[in-house]
Amino acid sequence: MFKSVVTLALSAMLLICTPVSAAEPIVIKFSHVVAEDTPKGRGALLFKQLVEQRLGDKVKVEVYPNSTLFGDADELQALRDGKVQMLAPSLSKFDAYTKQLQVFDLPFLFDDLEAVKRFQKREKSRELLRSMAGYDIYGLAYWNNGMKQLSATRALKAPADAKGLNFRIQPSPVLEAQFAELGATTSKMAFSETLAALQKGTVQGAENPWSNLASQKLDSVQPFITETNHGSLNYMLISNSKFWISIPYQVRTQLEAIIEEVSFKVNQDAEELNRKSREQLVAAGRAQIITLTHEQREAWREAMRPVWQRFETEIGADVLRAAQTVNR
Ligand code: LMR
Fold this sequence. Notes:
Bound molecules: (2S)-2-hydroxybutanedioic acid
CATH topology: D-Maltodextrin-Binding Protein, domain 2
InterPro entries: DctP_fam, TRAP_DctP, TRAP_DctP_sf
Keywords: Signal, Transport
Signal peptide: 1-22
Radius of gyration: 23 Å
GO cellular component, one term: outer membrane-bounded periplasmic space
Largest sheet: 4 strands, mixed
Protein name: C4-dicarboxylate-binding protein DctP
């Protein structure tokens, strides 16, 4: 009895003496699947740094790179379940939620990354940021990586060279169709499994921007890389709609301003980073880099182009038309 009175008195004293703690910061877990020295990896770290500087007492950002928290297979569900608050999946990974974003996968649609950026500023692209609202997926910004190159265990100079090879692809029907046009087969696979699958030989080819090729050391298993620039790898920075709207207005506005700044920087630096990664691969000398003449590249374009028509209805003729007007 005496003991419990003392315990009660002590607890009461403790309660009185403990200073009222400030509200707990909002925690944003930002999970992604690539290395830190890539456009997305750097973007995530810059976001964390700026939030720390400007909103350090109110928001805490934790970055989990290289599929260490969630990978391709489960990250979108984890975001919808509130287990993670920010992601930047490639636009090829949203097929289950919207068909419209497949426009970004169409081969040879955009001449270069500048054209992609111009499209992302158009009204149609801005609308696509809201295309998954029904699934609680809230698009915040577009981040870009770079133009994709083909790699394989044999030299790919003409489209017919790809025939019979099995390519690792992201889960996009457009990418599946693109390789089918070449007489190649595909395996949809998480990014984190790609290197092992190429090592084992279950797939013999892939498509990646220079930064992912170099940071994953894919040249250790892909002796030939063809500089096709046939498509682009772009991301959507997303959050969970309910979570995002629940952030107090003032803090949310500041976060959105930081996102705008970071997105500008990511998209400004992406090309340079990919150029450096290309140089790194050339210097390593493990893979032969095949450059195409204008005529050779035109042959790839002709081979892959029938895919556009097949997906026009799903994507929407208006979206496709808007995308077609951005090349110069
Ligand atoms: C891929 O799966 O190839 C890419 O989406 C990986 C990434 O996020 O850059």
